[in-house]
């Protein structure tokens, strides 16, 4: 069986892949999106939900700032409420050294036009009074234009809009390998079909590296399991997205708190099972910071996978040896905010020949010889 002819095949139905497919279709290209499970239900659907600009790598910050403009228009554009709101992002700082480090970050951010401020701990508590006075923080860093959205709704909404523009979305269609010929990808193979195209985009998240290996390419990556715990419904109690070294949390519009410990568990087998240890860690550590949680029930938990490059920023590039293969992967646990702008930029590159923002900091070749595995 052979899939229908198409201009571009996008592999991966997360926020980056779905956004790329959507923007390519906007430009009049015929696009097929292949997803191994159901769209938006792997890494992107299991994200913390932060739409954050502050405290990013300098190469990422212009993308994050551009992304917020897309997020602000998303509900109208997609004709769907993805629960995006600009509620601010508060980073709590535990030492004077940490305060000074983040102050230097702020200087660079302000030079690019981002609104951000350092604040004392008492000022931070005015934003989030539920934080214990005895939590041991010396201050905070706050960006009022950062926000949150509902990860379970966003990708589904993008894909509905993409379908309206003609994107052929194939769910439960895992890509097994690339077939290459004469310096190009000729097609991709699934268990049931072969899909040919002029251009291919690998946006398969934690599975992107394994797929690259089938074409004789590689990139350094570590995969981590990231748990997320959900509380019972509460009245409005926390406005900004809050993070510190120990955890991050936000309150969803429905009232549930979403809690994520910052400790990461390395995995080699794509294991996403949630373990009892996560509940124990949260129960022991979080009430010290948020005492009211001692009396709040956790009603469910799940885990996602994040994939990290050595410098903790993604690869957004054309393959060094295959002229029609693009890679958008390695988002290192903070790609949720970036997904919509990455889709826009990749579509510009593919359809127009160049992107409207500089992507030179995200080159595949920055890792040197590691892009080539020792064995194909």
Structure, explained:
27% of the residues lie in helices and 27% in strands. It has 376 residues and is of the alpha+beta class. The chain has two domains: 6-66 and 151-220 and 311-365, FAD/NAD(P)-binding domain, CATH 3.50.50; 95-145 and 222-308, D-Amino Acid Oxidase, Chain A, domain 2 (2-Layer Sandwich), CATH 3.30.9.10. Strands 4, 5, 6, 12, 13, 14, 15, 16 and 17 form a nine-stranded mixed β-sheet that branches. Strands 1, 2, 8, 9, 10, 11, 18 and 19 form an eight-stranded mixed β-sheet that branches. It has helices at 15-26, 61-78, 96-111, 121-127, 151-164, 208-213, 276-289, 339-352; strands at residues 6-11, 31-34, 50-51, 89-93, 117-120, 139-143, 147-148, 168-170, 175-181, 184-190, 194-202, 222-233, 241-243, 247-251, 256-261, 265-266, 298-308, 315-318, 325-329. The longest helix is centred in the N-terminal third of the chain and has 18 residues, at 61-78. The chain is built from eight helices and 19 strands.
């Amino acid at each position: 069986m052979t899939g229908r002819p198409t201009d571009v095949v996008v592999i991966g139905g997360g926020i980056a892949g779905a956004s790329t497919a959507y923007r390519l279709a906007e430009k009049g290209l015929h696009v097929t999106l292949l997803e191994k499970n159901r769209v938006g239900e792997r890494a992107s659907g299991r994200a913390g939900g932060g739409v954050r600009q502050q405290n990013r790598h300098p190469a990422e910050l212009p993308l994050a700032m551009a992304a917020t403009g897309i997020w602000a228009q998303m509900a109208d554009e997609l004709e769907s409420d993805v629960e995006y709101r600009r509620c601010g992002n508060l980073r709590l700082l535990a030492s004077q050294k940490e305060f000074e480090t983040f102050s230097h970050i702020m200087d660079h951010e302000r030079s690019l036009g981002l609104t951000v401020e350092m604040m004392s701990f008492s000022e931070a508590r005015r934003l989030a009074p539920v934080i214990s006075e005895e939590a041991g923080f010396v201050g905070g860093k706050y960006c009022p234009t950062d926000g949150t959205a509902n990860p379970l709704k966003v990708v589904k909404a993008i894909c509905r809009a993409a379908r309206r523009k003609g994107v052929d979305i194939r769910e439960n269609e895992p890509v097994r390998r690339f077939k290459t010929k004469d310096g190009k990808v000729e097609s991709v193979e699934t268990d049931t079909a072969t899909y040919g195209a002029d251009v291919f985009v690998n946006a398969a998240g934690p599975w992107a590296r394994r797929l690259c290996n089938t074409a004789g390419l590689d990139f350094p990556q570590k995969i981590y399991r990231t748990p997320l715990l959900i509380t019972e419904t509460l009245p409005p109690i926390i406005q900004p997205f809050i993070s510190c070294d120990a955890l991050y949390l936000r309150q969803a519009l429905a009232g549930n708190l979403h809690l994520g410990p910052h400790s990461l568990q390395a995995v080699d087998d794509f294991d996403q099972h949630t373990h009892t240890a996560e509940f124990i860690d949260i129960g022991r550590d979080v009430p010290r910071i948020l005492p009211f949680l001692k009396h709040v029930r956790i009603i469910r938990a799940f885990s996602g996978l994040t994939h990290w490059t050595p410098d903790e920023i993604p690869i957004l590039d054309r393959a060094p040896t295959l002229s029609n293969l693009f890679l958008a992967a390695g988002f290192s646990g903070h790609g949720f905010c970036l997904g919509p702008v990455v889709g826009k930029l990749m579509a510009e590159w593919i359809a127009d020949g160049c992107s409207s923002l500089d992507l030179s900091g995200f080159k595949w070749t920055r890792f040197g010889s590691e892009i080539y595995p020792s064995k194909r």
